[in-house]
Amino acid sequence: SLALYRTYRPGRLADVIGQEHVTVPLARAIDTGRAHHAYLFTGPRGCGKTSTARILARSLNCEQGPTSDPCGECGSCQDLAPNGPGSIDVVEMDAASHRGIDDARELREKAMYAPAASRYKVYIIDEAHQLTVDAANALLKLIEEPPPHLRFVFATTEPDKILATIRSRTHHYPYRLVTARRLQEHLAWMCDQEGVPYEAEALALVARAGAGSVRDAQSVLGQLIAGSGPEGLTYADAVAQLGFTDAALLDRVVDALADSDGPEMFAVVDSVVESGLDPRRFAADVLERLRDLVVLHEVPEAADQGLIDAPDNVIATMKEQSARLGLAQLSRAADLVSVGLSELKGATAPRLQLELLMARLLLPAADGSEA
Fold first, then answer.
1. Residue 136: which residues within 8 A CB-CB, separation 6 or more?
2. Does 289 have pLDDT greater than 60?
3. 125, 157, 174 - which closes a domain
């Protein structure tokens, strides 16, 4: 079966999630006949740059268009559908393997020919920052003054490496990471489409693992679905497969910190090591929990405002924890864990470093400040 990121690749601009600052003005430009001849899409991996480029080509070449909402029925739309066979007039190139001056000259020669069956000939150049300076310079005149039938879309994760002379000849749209809440809603929709039951807590972990990248989150979801049982996607399975720290373990750390409970704190470290959890991953998860507690202490409605993404029962627990600890103690603990996280990197005895970090967390503040 196809990977989820291929099965659910968007086919219309409206289907690209979390990039409305790009898709809305792009749709207006297409519908009003103001589409530019060259675009530059930049941003993190897996956020929709190449998908948008393909949709743009589909929108421009639809027999009912150009239109931001392709009909999906004409030959061009079917050829350029998300999992369609492709079109001879839409050429997708990987600049990493076609980066030289000879490749640029060959493109320049072929680009001058009229499209075989479509309105426009569209060149999608992925990883455009890989083009050599000579290759980019060879394309400059063509990008600046293309024939009427030619369109260019450049996509890259590293816009700073694109020649300023190319950037100045394109309309530049920067893509953003997608919020965890938006990702979680999208993942839930995909689970519904696949007929897979799920726990909301598990999807929250998947969204977190995706780190704002839709494709990364879909890959993780596909992995979890492939290994799921009849009960579907469970929180326990997600924690085990993704290597995150169980929320219950984080609650034990915070409660031990609030109660200055040394035995419990070191018992947690023992549980981390015995379960095979990476100490650095554990420390990073503790730091993220402390960050959430600081935010909740200062912004009680943080969950409603999208500053924190967690299930309601976890939010309720964290509100109690933030009230018990207070801002001063939370801030101090976060600073200590942040420093400890750096010390854990490459440590020859990670358990020892983790235990020393827990010991420092249990020490009272030297300045005697009230929490």
1. 104, 162, 163, 165, 166
2. yes
3. 174
